[in-house]
Amino acid sequence: MTDTATPPSAAPATTLPYKIGSEKLIRVTEAASNRLNQVLERTGKKTGALRVAVIGGGCSGLQYKMDITDGPRPRDILVQSHGVNVVMDPKSALYVSGSELDFSDDLQKGGFKVTNPNATAHCSCGESFSA
Fold this sequence. Notes:
Layout: E1 19-20, E2 26-28, H1 30-42, E3 49-56, E4 62-69, E5 77-81, E6 84-88, H2 90-96, E7 99-104, E8 111-115, E9 121-122, E10 128-130
Parallel strand pairs: 1-5, 2-7, 3-6
Antiparallel strand pairs: 3-4, 4-10, 5-6, 7-8, 9-10
């Protein structure tokens, strides 16, 4: 008597619960990468990411919200640029496509700054935009 059982099928390929994006979505400058790596190390999240979100608010209607996170959530888009990870939700990605994330040590206007080619107007304080 021979064994006619079929061999077990190969396990289905695992798919990531998030998408991988490119620097066409957002590009991180060397200065921003250096600062972000410092922040990640200081917070104990060396393998973490910067979450960039676009939310309603500010003088011009939209503003950026940035947080340190452990990594991408389901449906997020992960972009690796200059050795750091940036994550965002698909809705925010629509607003930031083609943007550059920079960092400045300037005393008055220092910090992380997004240069967004989709912004049609900015408020005078530079904290919000419209698209």
